[in-house]
Design goal:
Blueprint: H1 2-16, E1 18-22, E2 44-47, H2 57-61, E3 76-81, E4 87-93, E5 96-103, E6 108-110, E7 115-124, E8 128-140, E9 146-158, E10 162-174
């Protein structure tokens, strides 16, 4: 009987300590384009910032792997197709290349939505001890913009006492560089 109470306590804790924020695609943005099989229609040059309230596109695509201290001076991002279905992401500030990241075919997946890049699973240690994950889906809009669907979540123990689970979906839009 004690095992049933423990399991019930854990299940109720997970339900009561869960949080989900799933933003809908903004209806005033241009419709999304259904990608072809190779999903490489996302190539192009895009402004690094869509608005002052959203992160730079370089954070999603180059991230910490780029190891450049100058990513906060990013002007635009260039995405182009490389050899063997590789995707080359270059971070620029005017005419200076700040960073470059190459995604091999194994690093991304073509889905019905667009190109999905998994940011992997990692251990979280800030306030919550647990596992977290993130995925970025790159989708082309009919107006030429690049839409980023950022999906993350995780679960663990808050203060090593209370189980928590979180899930979030957000959309960001980056216009083509002219």
């Amino acid at each position: 009987m004690i095992h049933v109470k423990i399991i019930l306590f854990i299940c109720l804790s997970l339900i009561l300590c869960s949080c989900a924020f799933h933003e809908k695609y903004p209806p005033d943005w241009a419709p999304l384009v259904k990608p072809p099989k190779d999903c490489l229609t996302i190539t192009g040059k895009y402004n690094a910032y869509g608005s002052t309230t959203q992160p730079s596109l370089s954070i999603f695509l180059a991230g910490q792997e780029a190891k450049s201290p100058n990513l906060n001076t990013t002007d635009y991002i260039e995405i182009k197709k490389g050899d063997n279905e590789a995707l080359i992401v270059t971070v620029w500030n005017e005419n200076t290349r700040l960073a470059e990241k190459i995604y091999k075919k194994d690093d991304y997946t073509c889905t019905d939505e667009g190109m999905e890049i998994s940011k992997g699973v990692g251990v979280t240690t800030e306030w919550v001890l647990g596992l977290g994950w993130a995925k970025v889906t790159l989708i082309k809009a009919t107006d030429g913009s690049l839409v980023v669907k950022y999906k993350d979540g995780g679960f663990g123990l808050f203060g090593l006492l209370f189980p928590v689970a979180v899930s979030e979906i957000r959309y960001y839009k980056y216009t083509q560089k002219k």
